[in-house]
Amino acid sequence: MLTAVLIIFPFIAAFILIGFGKENAKPIALGAAIIEFALALVALYMLQTGQGECLNLQQNWIESMGISFNIKVDGISMLMVLLSTLLVPLILYSSFESTHHNQHILFALMLMMQGAMIGTFTAADGFLFYIFWELSLIPIYFICLSWGGNNRQKITFKFFIYTLAGSLFMLLALIYLYQHTTNHSFDIQSLYAAGRSLGVEEQGLVLGAFFLAFAVKMPVFPFHTWQPATYNVAPVPGVMMLSGIMLKMATYGLIRWVVPMVPEGLAEYGYIVIALSVISIIYASCIAIVQKDFRYVIAYASIAHVGLMSAGILSASEIAIQGSLVEMLSHGINTVGLFFIYDIIFRRTGTTEMKLLGGIRSVAPGFAFMFFIIVLSVVALPSTFGFIGELLMLMGLFQENPIWASVAGISIILGIVYMFNGFQKMMLGESNSLTYNFAPLSVREKTTLILIIILIIGLGVQPQLILNITGDSVKTLLQSIK
Amino acid sequence: MKELILIAGLGVLALPAGLLNLKKLFMPIVLIGLATMVGFCIMDWNSNEEVFGMLLMDNFALAFTGMFSTVAILWFILAGDYFTDDTNFSDHYALVLFILTGGLLLVSFTHVVMLFLGIEILSIPLFVLVGSNKGRLVSNEAAFKYFLLGSFASAFMLFGIALIYGSTGSFYTADIAAFLNSHQDNVPAILFAGMLLIMMSLAFKVSAAPFHYWAPDVYQGAPTNITAFMATIVKMVAFGGFYRMFHTAFETIQESYVIVIYCICILSLIIANVTAAVQSNVKRMLAYSSVSHAGFMMIALLTMHSNTANILFYYIAVYSLSSIAAFAVLKHVKANTRGDSSIGAFSGLVKRNPLIAGTMTLAMLSMAGIPPLAGFMAKYFIFTAAVANGYIWLVVIAIIASLIGVFYYFKVIISMFGKSQMEPTPIEISFTQKLLLMICSIGMLVLSVVPDLLLNLLK
After folding, report:
1. Which domain covers residue B423, as residue numbers?
2. What is the ipTM of this complex?
């Protein structure tokens, strides 16, 4: 029941914002997001104390088609719910610094997106999953269309068409599986059974169709071409939602809907999709190195990290899946941090072309220090949160296939190159006319960054907190296929 | 029976309405009459009343009658100005109500002659209405085109009926079905010819490719009110007739005509969507979109199983609701941009009137089939039925077609949310029009959340 509240509450808050929130959009939006986070913590408490059953809800929806409103929460879903409820207040709070026209509508769309994404993370019915998956796309499309930068019409449309086209193949796969269920139902267990009963080749096809949908969303080479441009035109809160939370829908989808659904297909044809993911890691890292604008560096870095998650999950090893779950959370926190840094610099200097900047550290040493900690977490330095995920993923991948793991491992070195390169060029050296007057951080900016850093260090030292949430669920998920 | 008397009676009453000076009063009369129609349909549910052995008011007929009466109520609200601006208001009322009478025959016939009469009673007033904008050349051209091609279609149908009568000896659909059941191995060849002729003329009426060539010109040339009428009510009853004819009479020989419908589906989907993508006039684009929706609905006809009628019914209801909304918006935009109906006329609409823009966005998203809107559900049900019947490649084509569809529907959305070329002057609309837009939006949302409302009506 509580899960249904978690899904519906952001929508209600969004409608209240649209209707009455014109004057005080900020407190209403932030308040709603914080209440949502508190609700998620209550859900976490219930799950940890063995009352997880109360979180599930099954209600008939379209009976004649075997579709039900079926939501379930296990550790994996819980972590994803925590991720989205934790990041949305942060994103909202950080976006208060900039001025957006009609901000109450912008915040409302962000909350709607949150509701839809929580729906995606908890759906235990194939059709419901698909509906929420697409529902989350509509708000972000309008966020980019109405608040984006130059040339946004074309770029956001490309983004929309890409993701829609990808997910239509997922729909086809879902219908196909539905036809093979014995009881004509979209229930996740029936679909699992249907998927496992298929022959290896059919499983491969289903794997391909699902992977296409997820690969576009993550994105993985060669389906990534929408991403850098979209990250560039989308407004900063929109990008944070996209890269911080939304792309985790795809990695979550791989864990929930691919690995247990088509185990034989994955064993037989998995090398193709893992290869794509690994190529994507190296390719994106190399491109990130030669970027001139910091925003593009973040965009390509995101492709590289998500490629590693994808490879880890598709290797179907328990450790790697655990690692990717941790990485999803840490990547969410890191990218929100990086984009916030970008936003701070951009608002003060009007550019993030790295060559033009320099010497910010001498003007704002505190800011540079906090930026540096986030950079360390992105490059996976031990004792930061970013490290745990990457380590576990590479370990898991290594058990399955040492070659993939060693190739993917290069990404850490490349990551150091592009992140430190960006940091050096913007922060160190002599300050110039652009950075000379770099205004000190406002209280709000400081609070946001400090919160992010507390999360990075705190969870980096105590990753067991996160592993405890997901551990058993990953085991159960994988036991069912072995 | 009472439905027929009511609707035809209203039409006859409309004729002297001008003399009786009922200009102001007649709109409420019609609306109440149509609401009574819906009431009658609910009252008669499950009664299976036979009317002179020629019509059968079974649940299918009642559901379709209820639906087209409901949509007609919305349409009358939409087209209020059509009956007040012109001096010929009583003609307009009478012609529209006669079309509805024809529609009633189309969805309830058991005697094939009633099918023909329905088509004729529907078409002839429609030819007049398409040309009712007498001063404009395009309107006349549209009426003439529609009339010429429409008479061919009617002649084809008549010829087809004659051939079928010649081979089976009966006009009753049940007798034709019985004949086919008993002669499964030696069906006379002229019966197939007759069936194909009937299929062609019905495909013409629902504007499915390759019998759609009239649609873009006629839709564009006709007054917008009439275009909205054709895109919704006419299409709805034509599909009702199509399903009824092929479901009750020809189900036994389904294998022989499936391939034809298959081709019609593919052609409609590809031609309509590709052509619509390059249109710059929204009215013309909606015409092609209606052809493409005909293609989707034809897929439902391909899958003759127990649920087909439900799926078709749901699809048409959703499509009509979003069409009414789209045409209402188009009308307001046209009225405020000096009759311009190009995509450019929609630019910056969200700043000019958020309600209009919001409704149009919902309508376009629904027509494009973006989840979780009702249009998606409708397409989804059709796809599932098709996959269950083994038409997986047709579904792949349909998915690609709907992706192309996204492209042109989104052109409108992008334009509405983009910057306006001129100073965004606010658009003022009357309360009833606001109400109509809200009803349509809420209707679309309700149908997407609880499709079971309509999906379990027909068993």
Report:
1. 2-455
2. 0.86
Q: Report whether B274 contacts B403 (CB < 8 A).
A: no
**Per-position DSSP letters for A17-39, written without gaps between them:** HHHH-SSSHHHHHHHHHHHHHHH
Torsion of CA B204, B206, B209, B210, to 10 degrees: 0
The model's pLDDT over A84-102, given as tens digits with 9 standing for 90+, comes to 999 999 998 888 878 888 8
Task: Give the structural domain span for A345.
Answer: 268-482
The answer to whether residue A192 is domain-embedded is no
**Domain total in chain A:** 1
- A73 domain residue, yes or no: no
Q: In chain B, how many domains are there?
A: 1
pLDDT in tens, A132-181: 999 999 999 999 888 888 888 888 888 888 888 888 888 889 988 888 88
Q: Are B169 and B161 in contact (CB under 8 A)?
A: no
pTM of the predicted model, to two decimals? Answer: 0.90
CB contact under 8 A, A172 and B381: no
- Domain-located, residue A406: yes
Helices (H), B131-206: 137-168, 173-182, 189-205
* Chain A residue numbers touching B416 (CB-CB < 8 A): none
| Distance (Å) from the alpha carbon of B407 to chain A's nearest alpha carbon | 8
User: Which of B299, B346, B406 should we substitute to test contact with A (largest number of A Cβ atoms within 10 Å)?
Assistant: B406
Instruction: Kindly state whether A183 is in contact with chain B, defined as any CB-CB distance less than 8 angstroms.
Output: no
Any domain includes A373: yes
Interhelix angle B235-248/B282-302, nearest 10 degrees = 20
B414 CB within 8 Å of a chain A CB: yes
- Cα–Cα distance for residue pair A192/A172, rounded to 1 Å: 16
